[in-house]
Amino acid sequence: MKHIFSFSAFVFIFSGALFAQEETPTKTQAGHKNNNNFKQLYEEFATPNRFRTASGAPGVDYYQQQVDYVMNIELDDENTKLYGEETITYTNNSPDELAYFWVQLDQNIRTKDAPALEKNSSGISPLKRVESFVNETMDEPFDGGFNIQHVKDANGKPLRYTVNQTMMRVDLPTPLKSGAQYVFSIKWWYNVNNHVTNRARSGYEYFPEDDNRAYVIAQFFPRLAVYNDVEGWQNYQFWGNGEFALNFGNYEVNITVPEDHIMEATGELQNPKDVLSRTEFQRYKKALNTFDEPVLIVTQEEAEAKEATKAIKKSTWKFVAENVRDFGFATSRRFIWDMMAVKVGSQNVIAASLYPKEGNPLWEEYSTKVVAHTLEVYSKYTFDYPYPKAVSVHAKNQGMEYPMICWNYGRPNEDGTYSDRVKYGMISVIIHEVGHNYFPMIVNSDERQWGWMDEGLDTFMQYLTEQELEADYPSRRGDPSKIVRYMSGDQDFISPIMSNPENVFQLGPNAYGKPATALNILRETIMGKELFDYAFKTYAQRWMFKHPSPEDFFRTMEDASAVDLDWFWRGWFYSTDAVDIGLKSVKRFHITPNPTQEVKDLVSSYGMTVDELPPMVFMVAEDSEEFTEELNKAENNSEVLKNYLAENSADLAGKTLPKFFYEIEFNKPGGIVMPIIVEYAYADGTKDLVTYPVQVWRKNDQSVKKMVTSDKEIIGITIDPKAETADVDLSNNAWPKEEVKTDFDQFKEAVKG
After folding, report:
1. Are 231 and 326 in contact (CB under 8 A)?
2. What angle do CA 670, 586, 738 make, to 5 degrees?
3. What is the pLDDT of residues 62-95, one digit of tens each?
4. Which of 582, 618, 694, 738 is least buried, going by the fewest C-beta atoms within 10 A?
5. Which residues, including other chains, have CB under 8 Å from residue 204's CB and lie 6 or more apart?
6. What pLDDT is stored for residue 749 in this prediction?
7. Please, which residues have CB within 8 angstroms of residue 721's CB and are 6 or more apart in sequence?
8. Which long-range contacts (CB under 8 A, 24 or more apart) does 61-65 make?
9. CA 500 – CA 449 distance, rounded (Å)
10. In the chain, which stretches have pLDDT less than 50?
11. How far apart, in Å, are the Cα atoms of 562 and each of 534, 537, 685?
12. Who's near 653: CB < 8 A, 6+ residues apart?
């Protein structure tokens, strides 16, 4: 089968070559700017410089600040309060002098008068769940913000500070010069919240049957904001959705809790002998070199025995973490604990899980094994996992990530049974949250501004990891068909991916689903796996332990692949356009001995007659008034063509004239330009799959034509037969036209039924 550019192009060349003449002057029309989908993104991208290059790599003057913490933390389990004091060493690697520091106080989003509590519109709904109604109208606001007790310099002298909602400015006595260090300390406390009541990112879950709590603690200390070449100080307030922009540093953290608690945290445990029983310590050492199955450090029976008694004494767990951007920990006397080793590159990494009995039998069976699988797959596509461990902690309704540790949901029924939905939901969230170690814990993007750079990239990697875990894994996001409903929705409630997380209507599809789908399409359909995987790994390795911007990602993907993708970023990331490519018309043509009236009129318009033309092949469409059955039956109705073939038979040896000629016109009701993937079905039962490159739209954004020649009769044409492009309207994708029901159509019918 041959595919030639188009009839319209042929006619244009024909007329331009033979009938060129001076154009008649016309009235001057208003001009327009370059709105071509294929123009480069120079207007959208920041100008390359010595900090960040045009190739997407860090520049020769790239810098980032170093912030190190030494902390002493104590958890008051009885009164649910957390006390802390930290000594911070700030190294100014920027070329600028700094007159002050900005410190993040994320717990202040929980003060009873926090502006974030009023950030959304509210009204009275005609119906509301009883629990929600009572909580909204009768509960007293929880007061959980930071209580700052002091901010002092290294000599113990108070420093002046100003708290502005979730940010605190610490004024320095003299500006901190480039290359210098500054040491200061902060002391604080706050009331720990029940994270189950409002699905907070951290806090505790209370178990009334035994009067115990399981804590997952994060954002628990004042953290330095990022200062860099893109934002200066990233001191955008924490409103709840936009997550975190953080510095890399080294941590020494001592955490005091009741003696019978079991704890995991960011970093390596320094004193296992001091905090574990002899039996627990022996199991702990065994797990460090056990690769086949998890080793139970604390069994369910042992955890249950602790529920009835509460230790009065306390113990201090000591952790050290190097080159991390944050710190989190989980602690409870109710925790079961298991561990195993997994080989990642040349390093043995510990995969571990903490979970109360409510998580079993599901968690004991799957959690730690899924952690290990995630590290193996993510490392294959990015870089070898560089940290010593990765921990999954079970917490009700949770899904949140920190370096080396994360909280995950997935709770069986009280009798231990569970559905596939619960099982796969748990596995997926573990993959996702453990995967966040790569994006953004190591490839450290600015989550406060660009939620998709960690959530979208991580959801894409989650999809690959799920599919490698199990054939036909029921992935929630990543497959193109899963994003169609969102992209075809009401434009009043859709935002571009390149939006701040606080300003989007549907954060899940916007920051997770759509970018993950876009990258999957880019890998499977646009670039191909080999080019994509190389470029994606290049980005990950260029920016590991650094702070990339969106342009760094976009530029690297092009730089490492030689694929121009500005059209793709513009359509998928900078707009809310959707994909919709359809079949506008299908015509079959025949060779005719006589020129049609259309040809005569065209020739006449140039002041010529048909007789004055050089030897020509004339064609007529079957739907033309001038088409006859004789033409349909005749194999060749052009004496001119027959003579040409006979005269050039030596040069044309082995070649035959096609039997069928088709003109296929494609249109594009949707805004996003995409390659046209077409399946041609023939009368003999065979099929051909052809992809026309996206550049086919570069000169006509509305429709394009293709001439298809074949020795076989075409009886069917289908656009995007494997649903690779997230086409939002399948009703125009087939010829002859047939009713095609989308997932959303089937959903609506099910609801009506």
Report:
1. no
2. 70
3. 999 999 999 999 999 999 999 999 999 999 999 9
4. 738
5. 80, 192, 193, 194, 195, 213, 214, 215, 216
6. 60
7. 677, 679, 689
8. 61/95, 62/229, 62/546, 63/93, 63/94, 63/95, 63/228, 63/229, 64/93, 64/228, 64/247, 64/248, 64/546, 64/547, 65/90, 65/91, 65/92, 65/93, 65/94, 65/224, 65/226, 65/227, 65/228, 65/247
9. 5
10. 3-23, 740, 742, 744, 747, 751, 753
11. 11, 15, 38
12. none
8 Å CB contact between 38 and 566: yes
Cβ contact 89:183 at 8 Å: yes
Phi, psi of 48 (to 5 degrees): -60, 155
Give pLDDT, residue 739.
54
Domains with residue ranges and CATH for the chain: 2-9+580-752 (no CATH), 63-115+137-247 (2.60.40)
Select from 359, 352, 82, 73 the least CA-distant residue to 204: 82
Write down the pLDDT at residue 744: 46
Which residues are CB-contacts of 296 (< 8 A; sequence separation ≥ 6)?
Answer: 283, 336, 337, 338, 364
Instruction: Give the model's pLDDT for residue 199.
Output: 81
Nearest to 580 by CA among 509, 674, 696, 452: 674
Give the integer Cα–Cα distance in Å for 362 and 340. Answer: 17
If you count DSSP H runs as helices and E runs as strands, how many of each does the chain have, helices first? 19, 32
Q: Categorise residue 706: left if φ over 0, alpha if ψ from -120 to 50, beta otherwise.
A: beta
Length of the chain: 753
pLDDT at 118: 67
- Per-residue tokens: 156: 């113990």
Kindly list the strands in the beta sheet with 2-4, ordered across the sheet, starting from the edge strand earlier in the chain. 2-4, 703-710, 660-667, 582-592, 618-621
CA distance 57 to 297: 44
